[in-house]
Amino acid sequence: MSSTTLNKNNTRSLSHQKILYLTTTALFAALVCITTAYIFHIPVGSNSGYVHVGDAIIYLAASILPAPYAMIAGGLGGAMADLLTAPVWAPATFIIKMINVIPFTCKKDKIVNTHNVIALFISGIITFVGYFIAEGVMFGTWAALIPSLLSGWVQPLGSAIVFLILGTALDRMNFKNKFFK
Description:
Strand content: under 5%
Order of helices and strands: HEEHHHHHHH
Largest sheet: 2 strands, antiparallel
Strand order of the largest sheet: 1-2
């Protein structure tokens, strides 16, 4: 094959990969939005917070997509959910959900791997601290946040469990190797 043919094939391959990443990013953003705002949406705590599986979808995106794509999916999906349910939280959610992606890796063959299990704990801390700071800034006092301390851990814990279940199921289907290799 000539180098021109190789370059055309490589360009098509890169173009195909970009399209795959962009469409998967959009799909994850939509799933994050819907699952955060409406599906398995359980109110908890005194701060009008709620438990949802949206963070589990963000963790999946972070384990499947390269970080910039996963950050967009998590940030946009979470912020869109807040725009639909509690708009005042959208800016903080956008930032926090983008940061949630950073501890994860998509470079392993499996979604559920040691690195990503450790990332669940780090991401949970990011969520907890991020919303604690956002509440303090929004409400202007830190003392009023004490009741939300306990309920602030429920969301990351629930999402970690859902991630492990979904990630294990996708790993058994060999999902990453079928679609992203």
